[in-house]
UniProtKB/TrEMBL annotation:
Predominant place of localization: membrane
Gene3D superfamilies: MFS general substrate transporter like domains
Keywords recorded for this protein, A-Z: Cell membrane, Membrane, Transmembrane, Transmembrane helix
InterPro entries reported in the protein's UniProt record: MFS, MFS_dom, MFS_Efflux_Transporters, MFS_trans_sf
Protein name according to UniProt: MFS transporter
Organism: Streptomyces kaniharaensis
A Pfam family recorded for this sequence: MFS_1
PANTHER family reported for this sequence: PURINE EFFLUX PUMP PBUE
Amino acid sequence: MPVRLLLLALGTFAMGTDSMVVAGILGPVSADLGVSVPAAGQLVTVFALGYALLAPVLATLTARWPRRRLLLTALVL
């Protein structure tokens, strides 16, 4: 497998894992915040909605950026 493809796959995996890591630690988060697990689960919903609503906006705003620069900026953030 080419190194570039491997790095792209690793970056995609990291971004996907990062976006759903809260679901795995929902119990400790709810205990720390002093709320029920279903109430803390709304954090995942709010995050997913924000992600879904802002993705097209950010895609439009960054459409003129060179793809390499955009990908590297996204991975750094």
